[in-house]
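Researcher: For the annotation table, I need structure tokens for Shikimate kinase. Please keep the output clean. Sequence:
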Amino acid sequence: MLIFLIGMMGAGKTTLGWQLANKLGYSFVDLDDFIEKREGKSIAQIFEQEGQECFRELERAALEAVVTENTKAVISTGGGTPCFFNNMDFINGQGKSIFLNVPLSEIFTRLSGSNLALRPLLANKTEEERRLFLTNTLAARKPCYEQAVYTLNGPDFTVQALLKLLNYN
Ligand code: SKM
């Protein structure tokens, strides 16, 4: 069984994915970390040196590799992963997808307190530009995220709520 967590940056995919994997005794894969290890570069370096288009190709290839290498895993995808190529269909063909739906205001607050240098799409933007970017990006991505099999409404999530959703208890 493969379980994919999807949603915007700042939704909590990595933290919750790790907790869920631990609880289930599954492997945990953070797709951004996987890409960084595979390429030997940070996500920020890939964006800077090769551009977003190249990153999206590496991301798709990484998604396929993770699916090939794992049978029981919780996979926290990157914020944009489901919205490029046919990645969302691919994800839904491989396992159970869960959209972590967090209100934009909360995402904005969380990301403002994070290290923006690690988030190339937000780095070098003013607060106003970040707000506009996140507003537009969430609006554009939502129809894609909503193709997930399950949606969990935040801002905060518990492993128990996830397990219940997945019918594991
Ligand atoms: O995959 C990384 C990368 O910074 C792009 C991204 C996005 O498009 O929302 C989110 C991150 O997880």
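Researcher: And a one-line annotation?
Model: Residues 9, 32, 43, 78-80, 119-121 surround SKM (CB under 6 Å).
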